[in-house]
């Protein structure tokens, strides 16, 4: 007959082999739960490894791993030639009874602080919690196109490298990392730069890059110029540092540089924020003529240009126009970009390219925000750049996204030919749809929601002169595009009373 302990373990140990959690971890958690509940008390001997392996039909090495895990966490003590015995870890923290709270309230955490603090209107979340099957976003990649199994192999291989462990234990790194050198090589090859690691700072995201740059660059009441429709996330960051945001007219050639020259004088502008490659949200490209005019004006008026190149890699036709930063000889341009949008979001990274003096100061801020960084991610990305894997993934995904863009244009032509104007961009994951005649976009979003389609407020742009949507299509396959456009048409007809 089995002992009482064996009978208990046979009853509580249940595991699945076809899950991402290892079997020994599943069993360890179940034994810990039994100890916490008092089913296995202090001093009880657990079955030997051979006995437990036969009892629950697993390999003996798996049982050894279970006991080692329990010992590492302090739940058992393994005594050689004697056995494995349950111990209850010493409680490190004492519970404090909140005598001022009503009965049974001592285990609830208070909702309000007992002190004042500064809340920020500018950083209020723009996320809308609407549960619908279909959503139109502002142009995000499709996670389903990412090679999951390849990423797990790359990540696992990187974790096993001794060089990664040595970087974790490194106190100070006076030299530039392999990742920084590889990223410089990649940017020099793809964007026409001639930079060294001293001109580069790697961050977690474009938003982090812009936040650090704005902390260095902008003082309260400094004038920051943006397009009259602009990136709401960037505007939030500028407002948070106290900038005075002024808007500049835009057309199909991008920002109106003549307007800036006529309306502002030398040293009255701190910086101009521009998405030169594809303006957010309209997708219009800043023309070569206006790029040169903006560079000349920045030199003359002594302001900085923040060039946000968020979707440079998604170029479907022709060659992408090189960044302004690649031809900036006066040190006026701060270039922000992304790497890894063909990867999972956790493998995406941001970077800043700028003159050495600014990068040195920016890295001081980065040390406070993210001193450790992500060593594994950097090691993995440097290898993917070196092996050319990033180029292959981008080219592969571009074929899919181009097909989706073209299919969306066909669907719009069929359903909205008479009521929507758009210009198919040469790249990017979004289209700028202008409704003519104008309608209430808020009503359109409400009608779409009734039909299981979500249109977030962050993609709706409406004033007396504009009635448009930034329609992100990257996350939708061709079948989903047809469904979404059909639902949008039903919502549109309901708004105009057809």
UniProtKB/TrEMBL annotation:
Gene Ontology terms for molecular function: DNA binding; DNA-binding transcription factor activity; pyridoxal phosphate binding
The keyword Transcription is assigned to this record: yes
Keyword terms, alphabetized: DNA-binding, Pyridoxal phosphate, Transcription, Transcription regulation
SMART domains, per database record: HTH_GNTR
Domain HTH gntR-type: 21-89
One Pfam family, short name: GntR
Cross-referenced InterPro entries: Aminotransferase_I/II_large, HTH_trans_reg/aminotransferase, PyrdxlP-dep_Trfase, PyrdxlP-dep_Trfase_major, Tscrpt_reg_HTH_GntR, WH-like_DNA-bd_sf, WH_DNA-bd_sf
Family: In the C-terminal section; belongs to the class-I pyridoxal-phosphate-dependent aminotransferase family.
Name of the protein in question: GntR family transcriptional regulator
